[in-house]
Amino acid sequence: MAAVTIGIPFYNNEETLKYAIQSVINQTYVDWHLYLINDGSTDRSLEIARQFESSKIKIIDDGENKGLISRLNQLIDISESEYFVRMDADDIMVPERIERQISLLEARPEIDLAGASAYIINNNNSVTGIRIASIRGGGPSGILKNGLFIHPTVTGRTRWFKKYKYKEGFYRAEDLELWCRSSETSNFAIIKEPLLFYRDSSLMNLAKYKESSKTVRKIIKLYANSSKQKVILLFKENFKISVYTILDLLRFTKVANRRRNSSIDQLQAEKALAVLRSSIN
């Protein structure tokens, strides 16, 4: 049995799936098993996944479309390894990602879950920025105020994932709900260096953002630590929706997306691009 199980659910990711899989194959840490789970794709994703099938890479396909939350829990259920690694089918791992995170977890047995920062890439695999992850304030109130992990960067102890799992009913913000629900009985850590290339389109999808915001408001109502915090956070969330709606009407969606990421200079971008190429070639 491998020490690490990597789980990648995919749905209509024919343009990016091969890069995600190749970046797993190119990891410096080699004691892993990869599960690729098809969520009812209608494009060539399953065909592409089957090209990589091996003793270390298993394909799961039941022909159904159950959604991300169900598939994540399915991956957790079948994992028998000590560690479980999250990843999305449109992202790319830095070659040292798993090695760095497993080293941290082995050196610090009190840590349940480790995340990392991420480079931002567009649909052409160009590096456009960086998103810095950090832990700023503990418990649900701190997470609601400041955020926590970049979801596909997390690696943790499988027993932790099996204990908490993802909850249905929190579409597009299932990770935020999980962090809030588990935070008071868990220990989290962040590796500041970017260990993932996170694909973030330059164009904001307002419909998807509204779906996310609806779930975030639900989470705020559940986990805010006081009526005052609840009112403040709900006001901010409603205000953001109003601003993004206006930006969408004015065709300024790139502005909305750039606010979430930090820029990098040309030299940093070139170095990051060299790392990306080593991840997928």
TrEMBL record:
Task: Please name the SUPFAM superfamilies in this protein's record.
Answer: Nucleotide-diphospho-sugar transferases
List, for all copies, the residue spans of the domain called Glycosyltransferase 2-like: 5-166
Protein name per its UniProtKB record:
Glycosyltransferase family 2 protein
Species classification? Bacteria, Bacillati, Bacillota, Bacilli, Bacillales
Q: Which UniProt keywords apply?
A: Transferase
The record's listing under Pfam families reads: Glycos_transf_2
Record GO terms (molecular function): fucosyltransferase activity
- Matching CDD domains, A to Z? Glyco_tranf_GTA_type (cd00761)
Family under the similarity heading: Belongs to the glycosyltransferase 2 family.
Q: Which InterPro entries match?
A: Glyco_trans_2-like (IPR001173), Nucleotide-diphossugar_trans (IPR029044)
